[in-house]
Amino acid sequence: MRIxxxxxxxxxxxxxxxxxxxxxxxxxxxxxxxLKEDHEVQIFDMMVETKSLRAKIKEFLPHLVGMTSLCIDxxxxxxxxxxxxxxxxxxxxxxxxxxxxxxxxxxYDEGVDHIFEYTTKDNLKDFFASINKGDIHPIDGIRSRALxxxxxxxxxxxxxxxxxxxxxxxxxxxxxYFGYKPAAIMEFGTGCQKVCDFCLRWRIEGAEEKLINxxxxxxxxxNIKEPTIMFxxxxxxxxxxxxxxxxxxxxxxxxxxxxIMYGSVKGIIxxxxxxxxxxxxxxxxxxxxxxxxxxxELSKYHKSSSADDNIxxxxxxxKYGIDVWASFMAHxxxxxxxxxxxxxxxxxxxxxxxxxSPLTPFPNLPMYxxxxxxxLYSMEDYEKWSFGQxxxxxxxxxxxxxxxxLLKTNLYVNIFIxxxxxxxxxxxxxxxxxxxxxxxxxxxxxxxxxxx
Length: 452
Ligand code: B12
Known about the structure:
This protein has helices spanning about 25-35, 55-60, 75-85, 100, 120-135, 200-205, 215-225, 240-250, 265-270, 275-280, 295-300, 305-320, 335-350, 365-370, 400-415, 420-425, 430-450; strands at about 1-5, 40-45, 65, 90-95, 115, 140-145, 185, 190, 210, 230, 260, 285-290, 325-330, 355-360. The chain is of the alpha/beta class. It has 2 domains: about 1-15 and about 25-145, 3-Layer(aba) Sandwich (Rossmann fold); about 175-450, tm_1862 like domain (pyruvate-formate lyase- activating enzyme), CATH 3.80.30. The strands form 3 sheets. The protein has a 6-stranded mixed beta sheet, sandwiched between helices. β13, α13 and β14 form a beta-alpha-beta unit. About 40% of the residues are buried. Cobalamin binds next to α1, β3, α4 and α6.
């Protein structure tokens, strides 16, 4: 069979990182790797492509079109599935990805034949056997239109299989991670035991931290040509076993690369003893969720760290020369004084990059129920659920003032606190220009929202 795997384009009106950076479609590379033996497969990355899906279908003539999805992509994915069928009515359409896992119902639509709620080697095999026979029957993890999208009832998780990095060869120069371009992404271990209340990520992968099969990881590391790897693991600093395995692997394979990882405050404090060697072997930056300056909020969010732990973490990372890309969440009950306290707090922490997003109670989270009556948009306004747009009505200041404070704080901390000359030296003028250009787009979107 000829199979076209598609990543939808940037949603221009949504507030997203992709205004200045986007990385490879790892999920599609995994699917490509799993199918390439038996099928003719291509990836069509619409984050990079300028051609339309229609034109690509006319050229490649696929039997099957598979789309990946994130929360903000729903409307676009449905449009593209319909476009595929309009171009050739025989095409079978599939949808997978994070949004299909978290909210498969969003894709119940006449344009979508099968929804992969989760994907494994086994359900892919069963699926293609059933398609070949023309016999659609219930398969774990798959909801089919012909069966009224009914699930078999068995819950499961996505399987990390070996991605085929060559499948995106022609796009790879475009993939970046903040100041690093080109950059690859990969996963070393799944799950997160921290189970923070606001976080979707452990809900996707589970609360148990597990290493991915070491042979698979070795193979994957050998295949990556880019000088920078961003590890998407929820918290890389989570066990002695994981850290020792990683350090030994990098040394054994004699890898000389830059690494970027997510690290929790708790993990950085607990596993400080590894930071010196991690830095020596290439760790350049940790993405740290400090979240807030306020201990009450940290405890309500079920964070296992305090505002003082955040300060301690910043000092530790400074000592080892590891950059901090910090993230914070603005609570909808904040007033101007709270934003001021946050700015003062960030001045103490001095991260190299800071993002401040409004707290987003995604519909799967327990906090959704408690904030539901203050929602500014409905669950079906998919493009708004970007984690960048204010979703809950602020209680102390107007929405306009709230956006104003978010904008002011983001600009203040990134222009005045971050050392911009140091950034140019680290990432080069071209990368700083790219990030700056994207940030200006984001500022414009915020300004438009202020005036809505
Ligand atoms: C890497 C990453 C990115 C990358 C690339 C994502 C991509 N796939 O294109 C970049 C940096 C571009 C990115 C951007 C954003 N991201 Co992001 N990102 C992640 C991260 C850290 C890992 C995702 C990943 O690669 N997982 C590993 C792969 C292997 O899993 P997967 O894609 O689900 O694929 C598996 C299956 O789903 C299946 N599959 C996938 N596609 C398909 C298709 C078919 C046909 C089939 C059969 C199967 C299949 O195959 C794989 C089997 O293992 C997650 C957090 C996390 N740990 O999940 C957040 C996450 C997915 N991102 C999120 C968000 C919100 C965003 C942004 C909107 C943030 C923003 N405001 O900028 C933007 C949107 C970008 C855009 N479209 O404009 C949310 C999504 C929430 C949701 N409900 O969808 C997450 C969960 C983080 C969070 N906030 O909790 N992101």
